[in-house]
Amino acid sequence: MFATVLAIIIVYQTYSLAFAQSPVTAIYAQVLPDEGFTLKATWGDAVSNMVEAGVLDPARLETILKQGYKQDMKPEWNAILKGEDAELSIDSENSVFMMYVLWTLAKHNNVSLIHESAFAQSFEGYDIGVGRAGYGDTLIINLTEEQLALARSIAQNSYRPCCGQSAANPDCSHGFAALGLIELMISQGFTENEIYGAFVKVNSFWFPSTYIQDAMYFKEAEGLEWKDVDRKLVAGPAFSSIQGAAQVKNYLQNKGY
Question: Range of 163's domain?
Answer without folding.
Answer: 2-254
